[in-house]
Amino acid sequence: xxxxxxxxxxxxxxxxxxxxxxxxxxxxxxxxxxxxxxxxxxxxxxxxxxxxxxxxxxxxxxxxxxxxxxxxxxxxxxxxxxxxxxxxxxxxxxxxxxxxxxxxxxxxxxxxxxxxxxxxxxxxxxxxxxxxxxxxxxxxxxxxxxxxxxxxxxxxxxxxxxxxxxxxxxxxxxxxxxxxxxxxxxxxxxxxxxxxxxxxxxxxxxxxxxxxxxxxxxxxxxxxxxxxxxxxxxxxxxxxxxxxxxxxxxxxxxxxxxxxxxxxxxxxxxxxxxxxxxxxxxxxxxxxxxxxxxxxxxxxxxxxxxxxxxxxxxxxxxxxxxxxxxxxxxxxxxxxxxxxxxxxxxxxxxxxxxxxxxxxxxxxxxxxxxxxxxxxxxxxxxxxxxxxxxxxxxxxxxxxxxxxxxxxxxxxxxxxxxxxxxxxxxxxxxxxxxxxxxxxxxxxxxxxxxxxxxxxxxxxxxxxxxxxxxxxxxxxxxxxxxxxxxxxxxxxxxxxxxxxxxxxxxxxxxxx
Length: 512
Fold this sequence. Notes:
By secondary structure, this protein is of the alpha+beta class. The protein has 14 helices and 11 strands. The strands form 3 sheets. Strands 4, 5, 7, 8, 9, 10 and 11 form a 7-stranded mixed β-sheet that branches. A two-stranded antiparallel sheet has the order 1-2. A two-stranded antiparallel ribbon has the order 3-6. A hairpin with a 5-residue loop joins β1 (50-51) and β2 (57-58). α7 (195-206) packs across α13 (421-445). It starts with a helix and ends in a 23-residue tail after the last helix. Residues 222-445 form the DUF7924 domain.
């Protein structure tokens, strides 16, 4: 039988088409293998179901949820699915939230008159997170450097820059803007200081003090002294008259003022342990703060979590590792240097000092007590003139700015009757203002919640520093302060801290 030509051509075309489809399928498989795309698996369908060899669609097993492909048509990433917490009242609490009695602490307290079981731990964690920035950990290299210099020898040459180098940065009027960007203003606030601080400044200037009988400021020697200091350098000015303008607290204590034994001073020492507002870090010609031994062991242990490793780290409450809460600084210049440089240096140093007190009071929610109150003083002088300033914070909600109040400016070389003003003022700061300031600091430290742990190695034991069990002459009145234990005994929604003190604080060791 003869084959029809048309049917033969159709069969040939069909065979050719089948070969082309097979070739295209092989090429597609090869491309998929090269690109890592395996393509559809045998028996899979586009809708996610499976089929067996005879083409019947297989349904997913009973109880198994069919996965649906994500919908990217809206251009949004797929939402995360949260695991539900079991045994919660509504059965819909998200993972990581507190369930049961811990869902609403205030509502739980109103119903049961007590806080949930883990509420104190949660508050303690929040407290630690909000105040962990009060110190900065030092790098290992810096720790080694300080241990080889500051801690192994009585002198600290690494802390003392040459006097000319100290002025770098401060000798520019632009430094005022740098300080302002950090919140320190070398001018008075529009609100000024409180009436109480005004009265304090007047009493510090007017209260009489005994002056040295035999000195270069003696009546018959004063004029000669001023003549010899004309054109003298800074070191000569400091040697001859600085202690007649700003007397040494430790020297006065040595001569019998025992209430000053709690004070520590620095002379041209860099404040490596403070957290400065900007660079360079403060290095006053003379500064006064409190010794570690000024505080009781319990008070210092309370401060220790906020100091880090106070021998190496930087902390808000320190100037150096042996001086805490500084409150007075002095900068000296010679006749060829403007006192504006000294004023800028003092502004930075006492801005750091004022912030330390504010941050301490913030720990117990009492920072409003310091609003517009003078918390530190500075004295700038050369061979003929003196400038005395006070420093105070102005709080506006969570914002705190630091301002300077002019107390007295005068030129003693032209008027011998004024030569003892700064000397008497400084002694009045030591005798009148400092005791009440220290008592106020102690009252706040006694209120800080116990048991706050930042995983810092405590150095109160075995550090080589003697720690007395009692404070020196000036102490806080136990009747007017609140102990740390009282903070956590009676907890109510209006208390500043709801952190009951733990039975024993944990001491965690850290490397370095």
